[in-house]
Amino acid sequence: MGNNNFLSPKLFNALKSLWILLLIFVVLDFAGNYFYPETDNTLSKILDYLSYTLSSLFFLWYFLVNKRWKSVLIILPFFIILFFCMKGIRNMVDYYVPFEETINSDTLRKWTYLIIQFVTVFVVSKRYLVEEEMNIKQPLLKLFLLNLGLFVLYNTDLGLIEKLIGSASYDSKTTEFIVNFVYYTLTSIKNVAYLGAFFFLTACLANRESFYTFSKEALQTANKYFVPAMLIVISCIIFSFGGLLESALSMELDFFGKDLTLIGWMNMVVIVVFFVICTRFTGQLLKERRLLKQKYYGAVAASIWVPLINIISLLMIRFDDKIKFLAPSNIEKAKKVHLAVISLLIIFQFRNGLMEKKVDDILMCIIYMTAFWIVAYIKKFTWLFPVVLGAVVTVIKVYPFYNGVYDQEFVFKDYVLDLFKHTFSIALVLTVIVFYGIYYIAYQALNTKK
C-alpha cells in the first residue's frame, strides 16, 4: 500500500496496520472472555485487566503505531481512570456524595462514568488535533464529536447474537468453543472496522470533506484500496444495521423515545448517523468506480451489504474486468435483467408466506420489488422515498386484518390507535433510516442517471 495526499502519513500508518490490531483482538478478546471463571478470583482480575488493556490499546492505536509517545503519556492516565479505576471511583462517589434524596445510586453511577468519559474524549481529541494540525473551523468540537461517536460504537455489542449465544445449550465443548470463537471474532471485526472508518473520517475532516457527499478525491482514494475499504465499510453497515434492527424491535411502541435514557439516546443517534454516512459512502464509491471503469454493477452492488452474499458481490466487483456480465453493451436491457434477478431474490425470501397465501407477505413482496424498480428509474433519490415506504409498510404491519390483533371484529378506533402508536414510535424512524440506507445503495448501483 502506497500513501497518497488525501490520507496523512500518520493516518495511513494507522490504517495499514489495522490487521495487526485485529489479530490481537481476536486472540486476546476471545481468550479473556472464553476462559473467564464463573467466580471472582485472581484469574478473573487478571482477565479484567487484560480487557481494560485491550480497550486502551484500541483508542491509543493511532499514537502507538506512529510512536507519538508524548501523546500516549498524556492520554494514558485518563484511560487508566476510565477503564481500570472506574468501578472504584463509582463506588466512592456513590458512598460519599449525599444526593440520595435527589438522585438514585444508578443514575449517579451513570453520570460519573459519562463525565469521566467526556473528559477522556476531550483529551484524546485535543491530541489528535495536535498530531494532525487541522486547519478547519471549530476543529476541536468536530474531533470531539467524532471521537465520542467512536467511544459509543466501541461500547455497543452484537445484541441479538450475544443473547442467542448466551441462552444456547451446546452438545459438546467443541461446538461451544467454535461458536464463541466466531462470536468474538465478529466482535473484533466490528471494533476494528469502526476504528478504520474513524481514521478515514478524520482524514475527511482534515480535508474539509462533507460526511454526506464525498469528493472525488476521497472516493478515488478509497477505490485505490477498494477491497480493504469495502471490507471496512460493509462491516460497519452490517453491524450498525444490526444495532438499528435491535433498537427498532425493542422500542416498537416507544413514543418519541420517552423510554430512552441519555446513554440510550446517544447510542441511537450515533448508530443512525454512522449508518447513514456508511451507506452513502458505499453508494457513492460504487458509482464512482462504475463510472471510472465504465461498468454496470446493478444487482451485484445493490446486494453488497447482505451478509454472505456480499462476499460474491465484492469478488465480482473486484475482478470486474474479467466478468462480461458487468460490462453489458446495452445498459438499459441489462438494468431490466438485474431488476429481474433482484425480484426473484425477494420472491425467494418471501417464498413460505407466498405459498401459504399470507396477505401481508404478498403485499411486502410486491412493495419491496416495486421499490427497487422505482429507484432504478427515478431522477433523484431523496428522504421522501424511504419515509413513504416506511409509512406504507407500517400501515400494512399494523392493520389488524393481517396481524390478527382483533379476534372477533375490526374496530376502527382500535386500529387508528395502533397505527398512531406505531407512526409516532422510534421504531418507524429507525425503519425509515434502514430503508434509506438500503435503497440509497440500490439507487447508486441500479440508476444510470448522472
Automatic annotation (TrEMBL):
Transmembrane spans? 18-37, 49-65, 72-90, 110-129, 141-161, 181-205, 225-245, 265-283, 295-317, 361-378, 384-402, 423-442
Q: Does the keyword rRNA-binding apply?
A: no
Keywords, ordered alphabetically: Membrane, Transmembrane, Transmembrane helix
Q: What is this protein called?
A: Uncharacterized protein
Species per Swiss-Prot/TrEMBL record: Chryseobacterium oleae
